[in-house]
Protein: FAD-dependent oxidoreductase
Amino acid sequence: MTDGEMADLIVVGLGAAGASAAIDAARAGLDVLVLERASGGGGSTAASGGYLYLGGGTSVQTANGYADSVEDMIAFLTCEMPDPPHDKIRAYCEASVAHFEWLKAQGVPFNTKYFGGKHFEVPSDETLSWTGGEKAHPHVTVARPAPRGHMVAAQGAAGHVLIERLIAAAEGAGVRFAYDANVTDLVTDDGTVTGVRYRSEGAERVATARHGVLLATGGFAMDPAMLAEHLPVMARDDVYVVGGAYADGVGIRLGRSVGGATKHMHAQLITSPLYPPEGYLKGVLVNRDGDRFVAEDSYHARTSQAIVDQPGHVAYLIVDTAMYEPPSFGQQQLIDVWEDFASMERDLGLPEGRLQATVARYNADAAEGRDGAMHKHADWCQPLVVPPFAAVDCSLGKAVFSGFSLGGLATDVDGRVLREDGSAIDRLYAAGATASNLAQGSSSYASGVCLGESTYFARRVAAAVARDAALAAAA
Ligand SMILES: Cc1cc2nc3c(=O)[nH]c(=O)nc-3n(C[C@H](O)[C@H](O)[C@H](O)COP(=O)(O)OP(=O)(O)OC[C@H]3O[C@@H](n4cnc5c(N)ncnc54)[C@H](O)[C@@H]3O)c2cc1C
Structure:
């Protein structure tokens, strides 16, 4: 065992969360040591799309004429969230404008361009876009819609640019880094977390933290045992788990090892986006009973989770020739085309008459520009009347589904890890995908919430540790 390293704050993991905490803690005058298992930072953040969900009147929203409000953002995020942490939601939304400015000040590039289409990932470099179901039911009934997706300005997936800039800012702030440092245990003294054990260069080492340890090792998508226990759908061979190679849940296990509770471990981001093409939103999505079950213009992961929840995980998208385009990303395959819905439902094995009844009701409503059954926005209400009619297979096991974990350690608004009884473990913090904050499931998610909460709540950890350090110094 090699002892020696000491710091005010030890950050375990150098993704968006670890880097953000390190920057602010070092700027607050703390000596910060980051321990990163890989040979460089990045984690899932580097693989991500680089969207952050921000609003309440950011400079980019304002430049594009959107007068968003904190209250609308709160209402949007709270809608459909299974267990809304109201203090965290309010803190996040109230700080959103300033947090965006903070990201810019770290050198993260954004522009003022706007993408107005319905796409699961903006195909060009526009910063502002609609990344959730802001205009869809039920969110549209509780919050004035506004685009809140803020993508780092880069062509294609932009997460690597985000993390490169954050690491550069951390370096500039004087943070110390140890790479190839695999943290394996927490060190405690009478219930207080005082450091970590890690393996580096073939030796087991100990690093001591004067004021706190932050667990920011990412989620658990890459750990088969945790997937099987908490996210069985994600554990299927035909579902692609995505993320950093070391997103194996170690931070969650470390937190648990000293009494930390977990939350929302069954929450997943699972998706098989139906759009683009946008025209597909005009069709109807039916289950194996021939019934609709979700508004087709919902956020893509909300629709995907609804498919997973259907009997047998079976879902078919039905469109007419006026709406049909080949699927853009090959996630779903065309089954066949039919001249009428009676033969379609027979060949798909749906109960006799059900699909015909579903389409008849939809067509009658859509002809009046409404959707009485699922409340799809009028923009996407169009009767299916131009034969032949196509069925696209959206079923789990047939279409391509991918995802990652959302649950993690229970934390307070400042990232302190909590026990089951709600008490905080002294000097232990968690942020990013290691913690449970605002991302609680596909039905309430919007792209950008994970990176938004990872960066913002990690910064609150830095502020809390700095406050504690100042109090200790004054005592
Ligand atoms: C393909 C993809 C696209 C996504 N797109 C978006 C998006 O556009 N917007 C959004 O909001 N969210 C997105 N997400 C989710 C988002 O990327 C993650 O939630 C976020 O990056 C988590 O950041 P983090 O800092 O918690 O973890 P990570 O970025 O995973 O960083 C954790 C770090 O900890 C290190 N580590 C692990 N174990 C140890 C150990 N034992 N010791 C030391 N270090 C360790 C890892 O090597 C890694 O560098 C996406 C995810 C994926 C996979």
Observations:
- The mean pLDDT is 96.
- The chain has two domains: 2-177+404-474, 273-399.
- The longest strand covers residues 203-215.
- The two ends are 33 Å apart (CA to CA).
